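pinned: reference chain
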Amino acid sequence: MKTYFRLLSFAKPIEKFAIPYLFITIFSVIFNTFNLVLVIPLLDTIFYNKKGTVTLAPTGHIPSMFQLLDYFKYYMNYFIYYHGPWGALQFVCIITIISVFLGNLFRYLSQRIMENLKVHTLLNLRRSVFNNVMDLHLGYFSNERKGDIISKIASDVQIVQFTVTGTLQVVFKEPLQLIVYIVTLFTISYKLTLFSLLIIPISAFVISRIVKRLKQQAKAAQETYGTMISNLDEALSGIKIIKAFNATSFIKNKFDKENIKYSNINKSMAKRQQLASPVSEFLGVGMVMFILLYGGNLILNEHSGDLTATSFIGFIIVFSQVMRPAKALSDSFSNIHQGIAAGERVLDLIDEKPLINDAENAKDINSFDDQIEFKNVSFAYQDKVVLNDINLTVPKGKTVALVGPSGGGKSTLMDLIPRFMEPRSGKILVDGIDIQNLKVNSLRSLLGVVNQESILFNDTIFNNIAFGKPNATLAEVEAAAQIANAHQFILAAEDGYETNIGDRGTKLSGGQRQRICIARAVLSNPPIMLLDEATSALDTESEKLVQEALNNLMKNRTSLIIAHRLSTIQNADMIVVLEDGKIVEKGDHLQLLNNNGLYKRLIDMQTFNPD
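pinned: its structure tokens
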């Protein structure tokens, strides 16, 4: 129940919906019951002439509306005495039409309010889970399947809407409807009602046994669905590699295995859910038959007291409807397990706290004036040490290149600056201020990032360049594209800057994608540039164009670049050589060549030897 009430907290302000829903539902329940009870005076009026009795004028006080049978009998006698059976029948039919209209009107209004509550809850829940995911540290996404996260945000939240919030309607309305039905049955015949109430617990016990394992199965189903979506995402992302390595059959079998597992769990769940409804219906009909035998015996043997044949028919009709709210409650509790399981997965994602937050007294930083400094910085992924006691200074306006073998810690060192990760020990200072004492957003506003992988979005070229500056004008975007050597190919595209580049920019070449990324960095105009292997995946011609763009980008900026290619690093003001998480060499290109160390060996491996 704790999970259920937590999920309902996303419906706040729930009173905005609950209070009008409660009042409207009360009227809906009253008129719904009223419609059934009207059958009794309707039958009494129709069969009046066959009774062979003479109706006397009604006398005494008008009975209370809570005395339903006496109340209707009083007015039925009134209309029969003064207007005849035909007039009484007209009166009953008109009242029935009005009652049915009002009952359905209030039911419609209550359904509209409840639907608005469901949509409102879903909106808040999906917003909360997505916002929290966007705030999580990058390390979280390395350990989680993307498809599982997508499944929680899309599928699980939807299940919560249709099960957890859907039960609100049942919880508000059906118990009230059940109480009103039972009170009505007592007013008709308390003996029959007491007899019938002895049978209802049997139905409740049988149904509870059927739905007992649904929560466990529902949780397994959601986890399997998340795995299946992950496989789908990986298959679509790597379709070229899959086909290139003739791995289509392997991927099909991998997906099909999860698909079959998911289907089997759903079949097992459906079997239990669908069994609850026919069993409850069978038990309901069985109870009605027992009551019919018992009440019919009383009437046939004239032991029924004040219970007439028409009242008994009315009792049977009302009692047959008692099972409807009871069945709705049982169905709701069978479905709620699936919703609770999905809700727990969603709440786990919401409860995942970002490891990187602003300090309590964090400051804004609006400019970069001096240097970036690493002081005794170490970092480890769990037990694996990646950086060990790094000391490095990057002065303003200088270009510093990080080189070294793969796995040496270059990308990790760069990722520490925008606080994508936190060092295990040591400090990183910007203008003498520990970055942990700066607001993350203001720190990142000083940085421009261009990665080896061109991260673009399925949108227009204009919107991709203006991604970090949504209010940018066309002139500003074009100026950034010119600096990035991208303006000409953009103009040659079908719709110019309004050309859609497809999923992850697949409509563009690798060099074009990278130049769009550089234009995006240029537009944000940061004082510090972080370039991670920005040209490593390009052909020679594209590399030349991109390198020119990078040179334009780095003018009058502080740049930290990761690169292996000589063309990228030889003009750097300082080259830092990393190996096994340690700085083994520092200096400019010529100094390091003369040292005859690791840097020279790396350069020699790139040099073409005709022998």
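why pinned: Residues 68-135 form the longest helix (68 residues). The chain has a mean pLDDT of 78.
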